[in-house]
Every structure is written in C-alpha cells, then in structure tokens.
Write a structure and sequence with these properties.
Strands 1-2-3-4-5-6-7-8 form an eight-stranded parallel sheet. It contains six helices and eight strands. Helix 3 runs parallel beside helix 5. By secondary structure, it is an alpha/beta fold. Helix content is about 35%, strand content about 20%.
Length: about 280
C-alpha cells in the first residue's frame, strides 16, 4: 500500500466533449488507489461497432492524441419507461459481447486501464421522465426491478473479472433508486463482490444525488456525472469558466470529507455549442 497525501480529482471525458479540468486537490486518508486518472468515455450504441474498423482506428488515436490512460467503456441496455421492471438488451443498439471484448483487448494491448460501465436508458421519454426517475410505489415492483437490474450488471461484472478490468461501474444516475432504496444497492454491491475482485464505483448525478447517497462506504470510489453549470453566459471567457468551477470544487471537497472515498468523474464534458457552459447536458 502506498500513501497518497493529496490525491487529485479523477476524471473521464466524453470522446466528443474534450475540455481541460482544473488541477484540483482533494485531501484524503492514505489509500492504494492511483492519485490521478486521465481518461475518456468511449461509447457505441450499435451492436458491432466496437469491433469495427472505425473503432480499430479511434482507440489508438484516443490514446495518442488525448494522453488517456484510462477508458470508461459503456454498454447500454434498456427498459420501456420509468415504471417498467424489465431490463433488456436491444439487438440493434446494445454492443454484442464479442464486439465489447474486441474493444477491451485493443485497449489492453495499448496498456490502457478500463472501467466497464453497464448503462441503462429508457426507450420512452414521452412522459418527460428519464432514468433518474425510475421508481415504484410498492415493494413487489421494487423487488422485480432490482432483480432484473442485478441480472444485467452481474453478467458484466463477471466479464470484467474474467478480462481483468480494473474498475466496474455499478450504475449511473439512477437517482430515485439510490436515494429511496439504498438497502437494495447495498445488497447488490455484496453480490457483485462475490464475482468481481476489482474496484467498484457508482456514478451519481451532479444534481441532488451524489450528496444524498448513503452507501458510499461500501464502494471503492465515489463517482459523479460532473455536468456542473459554470456560467450564465452563452459565450463566457476562459477565466469565467475557470472561476465557475470554484464553488463546485469547494462543495465536492466538503462532501468528500464526509465519506473519505477518492472521487472519480466517470462522465464530464461540454458540448461544442453556445451555451454549453450554462447547460452542459
């Protein structure tokens, strides 16, 4: 175990949303984790693209051009709407295992470290809801949803173990489930640890979730989808964007002291568009 006196905030950046992040220090207790992770999120919503020619070109380019040594590799499954309890893969949208493993092996040959992220999206947004509002009013449906979700993530946790992946992301921005049923998440974490020996993280939404999660102590990292608004202007200057980070970083530092876990940004990025510092998502 090596001592880390002041680990920096870890981060990942979307492939199409590259930005520089402030060199910020978060005090923590000594731990064996890397002090700094420079990485990118890498995503496809097509079954075979990870094994395709474009991916074969873009993975080494990502490593060379961005200096990324870590990758947040995403595979997405679906449920019909925020009140559905069945989670399933889409043959036309979910990467196949063969395709996913192909990308993993390409990254590993380049010496890159990998965080595997099983991701959940809704098929229907007609009611104005999103995955952060998945929730139920009775225990039977909660049990059904968590059993379906557990089957979904456990198959990828087993894959991560077999392929020697360093970090496994147990979920992303499932705000209502994490704040209303932390007991279910604690049970799931225990089940994942039975099949996966690497580090675990959950990625909380930046708004009204990460500070309200009560199971950080059961994980190895605390994750945030860091789409923090940084300015009220459509075209702020660089110094205004930099200053816009300061209150958020102060808030994150105070929160980090409450649980002591190293912080990762599994998702962070800003669109190449006017107003992205105001509404990044």
């Amino acid at each position: 175990m090596r001592k880390i006196i002041q680990p920096k905030l870890h981060f990942f950046v979307h492939r199409d949303r590259q930005i520089k992040v402030l060199n910020y220090m978060v005090k923590s207790t000594p731990d064996p984790y890397p002090a700094w992770q420079e990485g990118m999120s890498y995503t496809s919503w097509q079954p075979g693209k990870y094994a395709g020619l474009e991916s074969g070109i873009s993975i080494p380019e990502m490593s060379k051009e961005t200096n990324a040594s870590w990758v947040n590799l995403v595979t997405t499954w679906y449920q019909k709407d925020s009140h559905s309890t069945k989670i399933y893969r889409r043959r036309d949208r979910t990467p196949t295992d063969t395709s996913l493993i192909s990308a993993i092996k390409k990254m590993q040959r380049l010496g890159m470290h990998i965080m595997l992220s099983p991701h959940l999206n809704l098929e229907t947004y007609s009611t104005g809801t999103w995955r952060g509002e998945i929730g139920f009013t009775d225990n039977v449906k909660w049990d059904e949803w968590f059993e379906s979700y557990s089957e979904f993530v456990l198959r990828y946790a087993q894959m991560a173990e077999e392929l020697g992946l360093e970090i496994f992301n147990i979920g992303t921005e499932l705000s209502m489930t994490t704040t209303q049923r932390p007991d279910k998440w604690i049970d799931l974490i225990a089940r994942i640890r039975e099949v996966y020996s690497g580090r675990l993280v959950y990625t909380a939404n930046w708004f009204e979730e990460y500070e309200n999660i009560r199971f950080w102590k059961h994980l190895d990292y605390a994750g945030i989808s860091a789409y923090f608004p940084l300015s009220k202007k459509n075209k702020p200057f660089y110094f205004e964007i930099k200053n816009g980070w300061k209150p958020w970083l102060k808030k994150i530092e105070a929160w980090q002291k409450t649980h002591g876990k190293p912080v990762i940004f599994p998702e962070i990025g800003y669109r190449s568009a006017a107003g992205s510092a105001k509404i990044p998502w």
